[in-house]
Amino acid sequence: MIVLKDRQIGPEQPVFIIAEAGVNHNGDLQLAKKMIDVAAAAGADAIKFQTFKAEKLVTRNAPKADYQKKSTETGESQFAMLKKLELSEQDHYELFAYCQAKGIRFMSTPFDEESLLFLHSLGVELFKISSGDLNNQPFLHKINSLGKPVILSTGMANLSEITEAVQILSNCPLVLLHCTTAYPTPVEIVNLRAINLLQEKFGPMVGYSDHTLGTEVAVAAVALGAIVIEKHFTLDKNLPGPDQQASLNPEELTLMVRQIRNVEKALGNKRKECTEIETANKLVARKSIVSSQFIPSGVTIREDMIAIKRPGTGIEPGLYSKVIGRKAKVDIAPDQPLTWDMLE
């Protein structure tokens, strides 16, 4: 269980929904604030940004990923692209305060130690660590020294790598997110059952970071027991930037949150019993033993004198054999549900 100031994250709690703004603000503070408005209005628990200095994140000549090449300027290095997407420290202060005013939790993924310590000083309660840093052991050790709750994505990783990361983060309350690092992720490689594998191996504190198009896969993850859902969103999929097209628009984000909350309600409590609403329908939908003809008082009831029909207000069908051979205490009209006070 992760315990925050005003929220708990765990198997018996509402799913913690992270609206991932990422870098879809394009380095524009006002755009970032509009994204906070959208995430709060959609009902997300948190909005998450990314905190980095391009100089500390990537070499100056590092190439872009293929998906980044398709949606950003050609001939531009990954460094140049990321440099335009940075948020300043002052931006962070403003966004943190704006989230508080809007009633939504501010989160951000640090990509280097300086960014980590800055977010720590800012008062961020909960760190999200990207899949790309799962095997960055020096960074994980630094995170562990702070002892704050951590949500760790596991894209590109195998079980042994995840196990090593979990062991390093021994001082941090931890949620693992199943994740496939592809933007967008084809549904045939999502492998949602890996959520159950992680639960078996590491316990119930497992969620899902979704990069598929649409909302259905994230909702299905909740049905499999995911306690955290993270999903990219944007104000407009036509905006420039590497992640816009693989993100939800505001209407889709609102839909996903509503679908997740409905699935949570539908999952129930693992008990199988007649509900209060079903009790009234039970009398109408179930059947009972009824007379198939007029049965005079004093006549011994034979099999051909009775049938099984709705409603369920009479003797239950399972007691059929106990009715046969008994005498009618009163005249019984045809098509009448039998009750024990009609019989001797």
UniProtKB/TrEMBL annotation:
GO terms for molecular function: N-acylneuraminate-9-phosphate synthase activity. Transmembrane segments: none annotated. It comes from the Bacteria. It holds the Pfam family NeuB. This is N-acetylneuraminate synthase. Residues 288-344 form the AFP-like domain. Gene3D superfamilies: Aldolase class I, Antifreeze-like/N-acetylneuraminic acid synthase C-terminal domain. It comes from Carboxydocella sporoproducens DSM 16521. InterPro entries: AFP_Neu5c_C_sf, Aldolase_TIM, NeuB/NeuA, PseI-like, PseI/NeuA/B-like_N, SAF, SAF_AFP_Neu5Ac, SAF_PseI/NeuA/NeuB. One of its GO terms (biological process) is carbohydrate biosynthetic process. Signal peptide: none annotated.
